[in-house]
Amino acid sequence: MRWTKSELINLKDHKVEFNEDITFEPKAFKFTRRLNGLENVHVNGIGIYNIDYDLFDVEMNISGIMITPCAITNDDIDVPFDFDSHVLFSLTDSDDLDMYIVENDIIELAPVIFQLINLEVPLKAVKSGDIEYPKGDGWAIISEEEFERSRKEEIDPRLAKLKEFKFSDDD
Q1: Which of 29, 61, 104, 135 is surrounded by the fewest CB atoms within 10 Å?
Q2: Same structural domain for residues 83 and 143?
Q3: d(CA 89, CA 84)
Q4: Are 10 and 62 members of one domain?
Q5: 139 and 116, same structural domain?
Q6: Residue 127 burial by CB count (10 A; 0-12/13-18/19+): exposed, middle or buried?
Q7: CA 160 to CA 150: how far, in whole Å?
Q8: Residue 85 shares a structural domain with residue 144
Q9: % pLDDT > 90, the chain
Q10: Owning domain of residue 154
Q11: How many distinct structural domains can be found in the chain?
């Protein structure tokens, strides 16, 4: 998914339609803390080159599976994603912060897609099902259900003395 300015000018209606699967190299995830990998990334959309303003306007849908670390166990979790995006590329210098500035008249969509996916990574993901929570000497992480259960079993310290009270059947 790479186009040059001359290719866009020579296209009929200056329009590009794409429907592709993308893979990213493992080194792309080296500097991402919340994203360990991507699988089955599929991108489809349309790009229209506006010759008057020297802009390339892209509407696309991006879907796939992101691999993120569990916030509790740090194990990998598969998180599906599917979102629409609108991106604008300027082939001339621009001060507009909402545009990607194209260098050397070559538009590369894959790095932009990687950035967009990174924006969709959840801040915290937790594995579902039975989780073996970490624990150590004098501490343990417990689930919310376990916390509520222990709280119900706990005796109110103001009423603890009543437990020692013995009723007598002397009439």
Answers
A1: 104
A2: no
A3: 17
A4: yes
A5: no
A6: middle
A7: 16
A8: no
A9: 35
A10: 135-162
A11: 2
Phi/psi for 5 (5° steps) reads -60, -40
Q: How many whole angstroms separate alpha carbon 110 and alpha carbon 59? A: 14
Tokens of 98: 């909402």
The model's pTM is 0.75
Q: Which of 58, 59, 83 is nearest to 3 (CA)?
A: 58
pLDDT, one tens digit per residue, over 59-76 is 999 999 999 998 888 889
Q: Are residues 36 and 118 in contact, defined by beta-carbon separation less than 8 angstroms?
A: no
User: Residue written as tokens 């689930």?
Assistant: 143
Whether residues 17 and 48 share a domain: the answer is yes
As given in the structure block, the two tokens for residue 136 are: 């150590």
Beta-carbon count within 10 A of 147 CB: 10
By the 8 A CB rule, do 24 and 114 touch? yes
3-class DSSP string for 50-111: ECCCCEEEEEEEEEEEEEEECCCCCCEEEEEEEEEEEEEEECCCCCCCCCEECCCCEEECHH
Query: Using one digit for the tens of pLDDT, what is the confidence trace for 96-155?
Result: 667 888 888 888 999 999 999 999 999 888 887 777 777 888 888 777 788 888 777 777
Burial (CB count within 10 angstroms: exposed 0-12, middle 13-18, buried 19+), residue 70 = middle
